[in-house]
Amino acid sequence: MDEREFFNETTEQRAHNLTCPKCGQAAEYKVTWIVRRKRAQLPRGGDERDRARFAKAQSYMVRRDDKLQCANVRCRKPFEITTLQTLAFMVD
Description:
Elements: E1 7-19, E2 26-38, H1 48-56, E3 60-63, E4 67-69, E5 78-80, E6 87-89
Antiparallel strand pairs: 1-2, 2-3, 3-6, 4-5
């Protein structure tokens, strides 16, 4: 059984305060995340190994955006997101 069958997957945008490294101005940016929430129960057809993997599975988020464009009208340069984690576990 594939690990993706253990989760419900959605896409969310969350606001984060980030600073442009080129102009130094801080602003609030919307970053896109892929959110994988653990299902309530194991899908049908799982064997003993799948039950053990499902018991250890945990809800998490994966950052989808790698680059953003600066919000400063004078700058508008793209920059990489380096201050946010690419993977974040969620507490249910």
